[in-house]
Amino acid sequence: MPQFDPSTFSSQLFWLLVMFVALYWVISKIAVPRIGEVLEQRARVIQDDLDRATQLKAETDAAVAAYDKAMADARGQAYEHMRAMQAELKAVTDQRTAAVTADVNAQIAAAETRIGAAKTAALDSIKSVAAETARDVVAKLAGLSPDAGSVDAAVATALKDAR
Amino acid sequence: MAEHAEGGHSPMEQFQIEPLVSLHIGNTDISYTNSALFMTFAVVLTAVLFWAATRHRTMVPGRLQATAEMLYEFVAGMVKDNTGLEGMRYFPFVFTLFMFILFGNILGLMPYGFTFTSHIIVTAAMAVFIFLGVTFIGFWRHGLHFFSLFVPPGAPLGIAIILAPLELFSYLIRPLSMSLRLFANMLAGHVLLKVLAGFIISLGVIFGLVPFMAVFAVTLLEIMVAVIQAYVFALLTCLYLNDAIHLH
Lengths: 163, 248
Prior knowledge:
The complex is a heterodimer.
Chain A: H1 9-142, H2 148-162
Helix pairs in contact in A: 1-2
Chain B: E1 19-21, E2 24-25, E3 28-29, E4 32-33, H1 34-53, H2 63-83, H3 91-109, H4 120-142, H5 157-172, H6 174-207, H7 209-246
């Protein structure tokens, strides 16, 4: 077995040492620092991106909260506005309604007064017409000329009975 | 045992160390051999891989950079999970170990390849270095308190006296088990492949299909073993480092 030939040991050990040290130099001076740098840089970039994403998310949340608040405020304000407007409208309406009602009532009252006056006048004229007619009727039928006082009394009695 | 070379049919012939450039320091032979050549390949390929992969260093990695990052994060995760953050200072060493063994194992599976990890002297040298290093780190960090590693936590005194020598023995046997595991896995896999491949020729075109399929399947298995053994070696290093850093 060539493995147990001691004459080859010295050269194998010598070149093992040389090559291992050479490879150690390559790995520790070139490979490890360079790859380590790349990995570290990548980890840093990813961390930065994550940090920025977190920050942006916080900003977005704040913006959304501000928007919601503004929206709620505006809605509240609009509601207030609407209520004020409604109250104002109601006041105006009430006022106008009251004015119109008063006007109408006044007109009704005036009309009623006029009607009452007309009625009284009509009744008075009926009385005089009836008295005159009664006097004429009596003159024609009986040939009498009764005095105005008794005719009027009789007419008043008759009208009172008729009513 | 090295006299099989003439026929070239021995399954052991693939492990023969062939000097390519003869070199000596005094009486010591340090010839540049096929083993050294494949160590060079492993180093150069790893260096080229990492150099090319980290040339542009883009935020969104390309295919090569993603491969390098995957290897890095795999080993870094293994070190961090098993030894904690204090162990990360040894991460370059574990990474080097993993890449060296991984490329050694896989390059050995290439046709005409040589597997330097199939030589016990190489695996033993690495295992002994790790054993000595870990022991040194243990004494350096904890002083004589490091011996408490051999006393199982929570054991009553009577049992601890029995268990401590066992713990010590299992600690001392670590370099042996570590080096034998890698060496034996590589050796057995390559011998099996060579023996099965030999059957293809001797059984001819029709019956040779059976061992051919077997070689195909075993090659897949060996690729898996190559990766797993590199992982196991690195993982054991992490576990031993953890013992030295945290004791229990």
